[in-house]
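Per reviewer request, we include the raw input and output of the structure prediction for the construct analysed in the revised manuscript.
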Amino acid sequence: MSTATGTATENTAVIAKVGTPAPDFNMASTKNIETLGENVRLSDYKGKWLIMLFYPLDFTGVCSTDLTHFSARFDEFSSLNTEVLGVSTDSAHSHRAWLRMPKELNGIGEIKFPIASDAGGKLSRQYNILIEEPNISLRGLFIIDPEGVLQHASVNTPAIGRSVDETLRILQALQSGGFCAADWKPGDKNL
């Protein structure tokens, strides 16, 4: 059970399913970008909501927009007791290089949340989003509640980015504690 390679710590047979405890993980990350010596674990987020953004590859266009757009709105997530975690099958070293590369050279610069390495694809497999060959993840977005229960899952083809506005709407609907009708918006009454 290696943590330096960015592998999940639980049995691969644990498959993520909305309404059940999220699979545990312990992955190398950019949490300490200088040393890459600080892993991220599901338990780090206990008591907070967590949005996990799985994406296919570092140094690619749609992935760059996903992470930079979520970072630009990070304070809105933070005000909702929510953390964000980027995840791909690239190494933590690749993540660091991407973060340090200038935007004009296809880098993303500094972002306000860590990126984790699922290098072996174990966590991506548990969330049923791993493309085995060439070992990349689909564009998955998962929302985990403060008790560690998976509350929302959406998966896009690698060609389609996510909507920060829709993610915030879904998060606030989940936090409202009630039934939310179609097109529910923050401030609307629950059913």
